[in-house]
Amino acid sequence: MGKRRKAREAAVQYHFWRDLQHGETPEHIDDFWAFCPVKPNVREFAQPIIEGMVAHLPEIDDRIRKYCENYEFHRIAAVDRNILRLAIYEMLHRDDIPPVVSINEAIELAKTFGGADSGRFVNGILDRVKGDLSRPLREAAPSPEKSGQD
Across residues 122-142, what is the average pLDDT? Predict the structure, then answer.
């Protein structure tokens, strides 16, 4: 399994833990990493995702609510809710990750950690989010150091 998949798993675990603690986070993020140890290169990819998800959580949750018509937000399984949060954060705020990659990774995480219908549920919500995007779905934005070298 690649470092990015492990990093995404760690981000989902962090936010799942946060949900169980009613939004409380550990006093220091190192407490989480002590509980959920990963290799440094995994942590390097996961840390900004975790922090970005926290920073944009109200916006992300509003987006989930928007597309979960006729379904109460608090009734979404915690695993599915946090997988959606991860993917929506990446789709909206991580131009270095193509949206289709975020969607595919989220579906795989949902199939692995969620219930029998989690993959389909996550796919349905993220497909609707994808329709709101104005950036290319299959491309990452060029990194600043590469764009200046052409």
Answer: 86
